[in-house]
Amino acid sequence: MKKVLFLASILSFVGIAVVGCNGTPNSNTATNTTTNTATNASLKNKALQTIGITLGDLGNPFYVAVQRGAEEKAKKIGDEIRVNTVSSGFDLNQQSNQIENFTAANTDLIILSAVDKKGVKPAIDQARSAGRIVIAVDSAVDADVDAMISSNNIQAGEIACKYIGDRLNGKGNVVILNGTPMDSINQRVSGCRNSLAKYPDIKIISDQNAEGTRDGGLRVMSDVLTTFPKIDAVFATNDQSGVGADLAARQARRKELFIVGVDGSPDATKAMEDKDGVFVATA
What we know:
- The protein is α/β, with parallel strands linked by helices.
- 42% of the residues lie in helices and 21% in strands.
- The protein is built from 9 helices and 11 strands.
- β9 (233-236), α8 (239-251) and β10 form a beta-alpha-beta unit.
């Protein structure tokens, strides 16, 4: 039976899941891994038997990729390893309870994509005090963890919005479909704004929370299309909200604009292949 010292292998499969979902042929998205050298010493000689994973939304292809990557790697390490993946629904209280439940159940390894980098700290501290290994994925946390693995979300936002700026020849009206205010989303928006700031004739006319979902993208974009008669481009902070925005544009028969997302998801690829849509790229 493999030991918890195989943490390096576990880090690799989570990292691969993140990069695999974010990477596209035209993106330069990088993955950053930070490992805490003070990994719980109490687990050095304990067999790895259980992994608990709490993610934002298991209806989102990005989080599904993380889940599958974890399950596939765990199976390669040992058939006896059990993986329990749950969805937080981007709710801090629910995610904190999930981490506490994993801790109480003596789960060896806890992996999370934090809903709130500060709010989740007490649950993480409790887990590590109890001897659990904790890994944060994609969103940073203001707590000591054994490792932090993320794609370069600032760079993803910069790449996406540089593409927008260049395609618009430096002039036009841009809408940002923001998301749940977690660290990864905030970084994507920051990166986007960094790029668009280099184009003085580009105006951000709307920045609203589309909740990172297809339904949210459809709802917010429908309202934006009603409010603004001239929209040239949309930056969606993830592909799911971008796909929803694409549907809204179709329904409104608005084809003068284009949409750029982030995550490189299969849904985005499908949308980009549809000539009737306006989803053109994902970082």
